[in-house]
Write a structure and sequence with these properties.
The structure is a homotetramer of 283-residue chains.
Chain A lengths: L1 E9 L4 H11 L3 E10 L4 E9 L7 H16 L2 E6 L6 E5 L4 H11 L10 E3 L5 H7 L3 E3 L7 H14 L4 E4 L8 H6 L4 E5 L11 H8 L3 E8 L9 E8 L6 H24 L3 E4 L2 E4 L2
Parallel strand pairs in A: 5-6, 5-8, 6-7, 8-9
Antiparallel strand pairs in A: 1-3, 1-4, 2-3, 9-10, 10-11, 12-13
Helix pairs in contact in A: 1-2, 3-8
Keywords (chains A, B, C, D): Hydrolase, One-carbon metabolism, Purine biosynthesis
Family (chains A, B, C, D): Belongs to the PurU family.
InterPro entries (chains A, B, C, D): ACT-like_dom_sf, ACT_dom, Formyl-FH4-Hydrolase_C, Formyl_transf_N, Formyl_transf_N_sf, PurU, PurU_ACT
Chain lengths: 283, 283, 283, 283
C-alpha cells in the first residue's frame, strides 16, 4: 500500500521528525517528503509519500493512528490518500469544445488516471463529442426559472455516481453554492484571463480593449466569490496590436487547454493543498 | 538623410500606393514599410523608413510636402523623424536603484542612443549612482505643501534642457497633469505588475495576497489616469507558494529592468504609436 | 477574389512602389503588406493581400501579368494564392496519438480550414482515432524490404487525392527523397527538441542525460537532411531535476501539439516563406 | 548558528528519519528540508537548513558528529555550510561589459551577499568600470606564449585572497585545468546559447545561420569539457526573421545578465548540488 499524506498545522519545532518517526516505526519507507512554511501566517505544510511494501497497516488503522498520535498534538489539518485508486471526475461544459476535446483525448490516451462517469451540459451542442468518446452526456438546461431544480439534479447525478471532483471545462454558468458546499476545493474552473485581471464575462474583449501585450488563462478552485478562488495554475502568451479579439480567443484556447489539464493532473496526483484561499502546489 | 514616417488615418483604399509613390517621386528608397489596420476602429497605421541618399529634400521641405500632398487628402495624423539625432532623455527616480543602474549601464555601453542631461529625484538616496556615472542629479523634494512648486521646477528643468522624453525609473510619485500635458505620450513609466492587475500601490503585496502563480511588469505611457496609460511592453515570470513577498520583489526587479529598457529602446527607435489609449508597436 | 502574393528577389529600390502600383492599376485594394529585407543576403521579401471586390481579373490572368510586368524585371521568385480555397492536408502518424487527437479536434472544431482526405500510418494502432473522427486510414507498413514500394504507395495516395501538403504528426520514419522531392517545403514535421539541440532519435532521453533546464519542440519543413530543414516554429518549457524522462515526455507532448498546430496554421494561411533553409514568418 | 546541509548517497529506507533525528537530538530546529531521489541512478539527495538557536554545537563538532553518526553508515557525500558568512567571489571578464555592470550593480545594491576582492581580465578595456565601482582590477594578458604563467598568476591571486568561487562574466578564454582542478564546481560560466545547441564560439552567428526562432543563455559550472559542465540555469527569448545577428546579440545580453545572476545567487545560497555532471537545484 502506498499513501500520500497532506498536513498543515501551526509551525513549531519537531514536526518533520515526529512525522518521519511515525512512519518509520510502522515499517513505512518515505518515498517523497516536501515541506513548506508560510512564515507570515506561521503555518507548516507537508506532503509525504510512503510505501508500506511488506507491512500494510490498513488505511483506516493508519488514519486512526495519525489522528491519535500526530494530529492532536500538533493541531494538524490532514488528509490521507491511498494511491492507485482512480478518482471519479465529472465534466461540465456549455458550447465551447476545445477543453472537452483535450480532456477526453488525454483520458483516452491514459494520460488522466480517472474514471469519467458522465458529462453535464446546459446545451445539447457537444453531445456528439461525448458520443464520439463514448461517455454518457446529460443535458440539464439552466434558466432563471428552473435554476434550483437544475442544480439539485446536477448534485443528485454527482452523488449517485460517487463523483470525487468536478471540472468546469468552459461551463458558462455560475455554479450554485449548493454544489460548492458539497465539493469544497474539488471543483476546478478554467478562466480565460490571468486573474485577477479581467475577472467576469468577456475577458478577451476586455484585454483587447485595454491593449495588453500578454493574455493568460487561470485554473482555480471554485468558491462563492466569482473568479476569486484559490489559483492552481496560470500561463500566458504574448499578443500585439496585430491580433484581433478573434485572435485572442484562438491563442487563448491553447492556453486554456494546457492550463486546465495541468491543474486537473495536479489535483489527481494530490499535489495541491488549499489554505487561506491560496494553494500550495507540491511538485 | 534618413527619415521615419508615422501615419494614422481613416482606412481606405490606395493609401499605401499613395505614400510609396510620394517617396518614390522624390528619389527616396523605402528601407522599411510596416502597416496595420485596426479593423474594428477602421484606422490605418503605417511606419515607413526612407533613405534619401543622393536627393536630400531637407526635413522641413519634406514635412511641408507631406502636409500638402498626403496628409490633407487622407486626413492623416502623422510625424516625421530624422534619424541619427540623439533624443534627450531625463530620468526620474526615488529610492529604488535597480532600474537606474540598468539604464545608466546601458547608456554608458552605447546601447541607448540618447543624451541624458540630468536625473531628477525627490530624495538624495541615489545621488551617488548619478555621480558614479557622471550625470547631473537634481534633488527636488515633493510634499503636500510644495507640490506645485516642485512640479514647476521639474518642468523648467525639462524645458530648459530641451528634454525630449522622460523615463520614470521607479519614481514613486504621481506625475502632475502639468508635466503630462507638456509631454503627452513622452513619459514612460514602469509599473511592477501585469496591468491591469494590481494597479496602484504595493502590487507585489497584492499579488502575494491573491496567490497568483505569475507576476509581471508593465511599461506604459503616463496619462492622467493612474497606471492606465497605453501599454508599451509587458513581461512576466512564474512564482509559487515558496516565494515570499521579498522574493516577488527580487524576481520583479529583473522584470522591471528589462521591460523598462525595452520600452525605452522602442520609443527611441520611433517604433511606438499611440491611438485610442493603446499602442501599435512596430518591430 | 482575394489573393495573397509572396515575393522574394534581390533587394533594390522601388520594388514596393512597383508592386503596389501594379495592384492599384488593376483596381485591387491592398489589405495587408509586410516586407522584409535580409540585409546580409541582400534579399527582399514581401507578402501582400489584395482584394479585387469589383474588378476580379481572374487568377490566371493575374499570374500572367505578374510574370510579365513584375517578376521578370525584378528577378522575382513568387507565388500567388487565391484565398478561400481549402487546401488538402494528409496526416502521417505512427503510434503516438497526442498530435493526431489535437489536429483532428481542431479540424472538427473548424479551427483548421483544410480538407483531410486520409491519414497514413505504418501501424494499425491509431486506426480507432481515425474511425472516431471519421477520416479514412491507410496502414502502409514500412520495413527494410518493402521501403521503396511503401513510399511509392504513399506517393500514389497523395497524388491521386490531390494532397497539397503533408503533416508528420509524430511519424517515426524517415521520409523518402521521393516524397520530399514531390512536396518541397510542403511536408511539416514536429521534432521533440529545441533544434538544433538533440536532433535524431530519443531527444528527451538525451536532454535528460545532459541535465538541461529547458526542453522544447520544433516544427520544420522536411528536407533530405534529418531534422535540419527550415524551422517554422519553436517553443520550450522549463524542467528541473525532479522531472524524469517520463515527465519530459509528458510535458513535451503539450509543446509538440501546440507547436505543430501553430506551424500548420501558418502554412495554411500562407504566412511562411522559405529561403536559404530558413523561414520568413509573416504575422 | 544556522547551518545548511547537503547530502547525496545511495537511496535506501530510513535516511530522512535518521537525519531529522540527528538534528532533533542536538536541539536543532529544522527550518527547511527538501529531498530528491534520482530513481534511475538510485541516488538520494537532501538539502536541510537547521537553526541551533539555543544549543550551538559548534561547526567543527557538528561536522565530526555527522561524519561519525550519519555519513559512514549511509555512505554519504556531504557538505555543511554555516549561514551568514559572506563568500568571496572573483569575477573574470574580457571586453563585454553588460554582465559586469549587472553583477556590480547587484553587489552595490546589496542583492549579492558576497565580498568581491578583485576582477581579473585579459584586457584593460573594463578597468574604468571596476574603478567606477571601486573594485581592484588585475589585467593579466593571456596569449600562447605566457598562458601557463598567466594561469599561475590567476591562481595565486585567487588563493592569496581566499576566493571561494569564480564567476566568468563573459571571459572569452578557455579556463585552464589548473584552475578547474582548484575550484571544482566553483567556477560559474555564462554561455550565450541554450546549450547543448551552439556550444563553442560565436553561438549567435550559428543560431542566426540555422534560422532558430528561440535563442537562449546557459549558466553552468566549468569542467574540462568546453561548454559541457553541469547546467545551473537556462532561459530563452523568441526571435524571428526580422532580427539580425546584432539583434540576437542585443536581446541575448539581457538573457545573459539574468541567467548568470540567477546562477550566482543560487550558488551563494547553497541551493545547487552537482552529481553526474548534472545539478540538483533546490528552491
Amino acid at each position: 500500500m502506498k499513501v500520500t499524506l497532506h498536513i498543515h498545522c501551526p509551525d513549531r519545532p519537531g514536526i518533520i521528525r515526529a512525522v518521519t518517526q511515525f512512519f518509520h516505526l510502522r515499517g513505512g519507507n518515505i518515498l517523497y517528503l516536501d515541506q513548506h512554511v508560510d512564515q507570515e501566517a506561521g503555518v507548516f505544510f507537508m506532503r509525504l509519500e510512503c510505501d508500506f511494501a511488506q507491512n500494510d497497516p490498513g488505511l483506516s488503522m493508519l488514519k486512526e493512528s495519525i489522528a491519535i498520535e500526530l494530529a492532536e498534538q500538533y493541531h494538524m489539518e490532514w488528509d490521507l490518500y491511498q494511491e492507485g485508486l482512480r478518482p471519479r471526475m465529472a465534466i461540465f461544459v456549455s458550447k465551447y469544445n476545445h477543453c472537452l476535446y483535450d480532456l477526453l483525448s488525454r483520458f483516452r490516451s491514459g494520460e488522466l488516471e480517472v474514471d469519467i462517469p458522465f458529462i453535464i451540459s446546459n446545451h445539447e451542442d457537444l453531445r456528439h463529442i461525448a458520443d464520439q468518446f463514448d461517455i454518457p452526456y446529460h443535458c440539464i438546461p439552466v434558466n432563471k426559472v428552473n435554476k434550483h431544480e437544475a442544480e439539485t439534479r446536477q448534485l443528485e447525478l454527482l452523488q449517485s455516481h460517487k463523483v470525487d471532483f468536478v471540472v468546469l471545462a468552459r461551463y458558462m454558468q455560475i455554479v450554485s453554492p449548493l454544489l460548492i458546499g458539497a465539493y469544497p476545493n474539488r471543483i476546478i474552473n478554467i478562466h480565460h484571463s490571468f486573474l485577477p485581471a479581467f475577472a467576469g464575462a468577456k475577458p478577451y474583449h476586455a484585454a483587447f480593449e485595454r491593449g495588453v501585450k500578454i493574455i493568460g488563462a487561470t485554473s482555480h478552485y471554485v468558491t462563492e466569490d466569482l473568479d476569486a478562488g484559490p489559483i492552481i495554475e496560470q500561463d500566458v502568451t504574448t499578443v500585439s496590436h496585430v491580433h484581433t479579439v478573434r485572435d485572442f480567443v484562438s491563442k487563448g484556447r491553447d492556453l486554456e487547454k494546457i492550463v486546465l489539464a495541468t491543474a486537473v493532473k495536479l489535483h489527481i496526483a494530490h499535489k495541491t493543498m488549499v489554505y487561506n484561499n491560496k494553494t500550495v502546489i507540491f511538485y
